[in-house]
């Protein structure tokens, strides 16, 4: 089977065919997937009915995986379960259950693990159970937004460092979602505002919901600047909306894309997603 692909939008994204992860992916096919990942940022693989072990094995080929943070279901494991189902009873959670509120943080435009000193390179999300409508995942590319910036703003942003803070972003939802232990586990960290892909040299804006403010600048003013950068990234022409089918595996480049989950009827329909996260190779800022 040869790996082929179809571009999803003019700006980014590719649906990849000719890959059966459960059967195994050859080294040459894997090399092509890795190239597509660097060039297209979001890869969609349809019809991949895989279990956790296969998802982990495939994900590890991109690099070592992250463990999940404390508050997630299954903390410490290499699989993060993002769902509205109670793992104990297998019943749909009450809408107001704290886990639903906590997961609603994913509905803000963000990039995974940017609140960690070494942020994630990639995430792979497997749709194990998906609702019949809504609950899409949206992606936006920070590359096109960078390319479009006026030169003066490019110069201003280059070299800036943003402080990313999990307690700040979750605090936007509700003040009590992050406890003291988790605050200690995820202290604020510095991240470059402009990043460059080492494989192809393309540059992009890097920010999102965890970005609290810019180091050395007025908090409110720099917060407004970060919001305006997000607004530029998430313009419709730079976004792709993924409508889930069971068995989809979607992989994205956290170094250059933002994403967000969309709401669905959480009291009525089950949605169970399993995520693996490929760790980054080093800090983005000193
Ligand atoms: C994630 C995430 C959004 C979604 O898994 O990192 O943000 O649509 N998910 O479930
Ligand atoms: Mn996410």
How do the helices and strands line up, and which of them pair or pack?
Blueprint: E1 4-7, E2 14-17, H1 27-40, E3 42-45, H2 52-60, E4 80-83, H3 98-103, E5 122-129, E6 137-141, H4 142-148, H5 151-157, E7 161-164, H6 166-171, H7 180-185, E8 189-192, E9 194-196, E10 203-205, E11 211-214, H8 219-233, E12 239-242, E13 249-253, E14 257-261, E15 272-278
Parallel strand pairs: 2-3
Antiparallel strand pairs: 1-2, 3-13, 4-15, 5-13, 5-15, 6-12, 6-14, 7-8, 7-11, 9-10
The structure holds N-oxalylglycine and manganese (II) ion.
N-oxalylglycine binds next to strand 5, strand 14 and strand 15.
Largest beta sheet: strand ordering: 1-2-3-13-5-15-4
Low-confidence stretches: none
The main pleated sheet reads as:
7 strands, mixed
CATH superfamily: Clavaminate synthase-like
Please count the beta strands (DSSP E, at least 2 residues each). Answer: 15
Q: What is the overall number of helices?
A: 8
Mean of all residue-level pLDDT scores: 95
Run of helices and strands: EEHEHEHEEHHEHHEEEEHEEEE
Assembly type of the chains comes to: single chain
The level 1 CATH classification is Alpha Beta
Work out the count of structural domains: 1
Radius of gyration: 18 Å
Write a brief structural summary.
This protein has 286 residues and is an alpha+beta fold. It has helices at residues 27-40, 52-60, 98-103, 142-148, 151-157, 166-171, 180-185, 219-233; strands at 4-7, 14-17, 42-45, 80-83, 122-129, 137-141, 161-164, 189-192, 194-196, 203-205, 211-214, 239-242, 249-253, 257-261, 272-278.
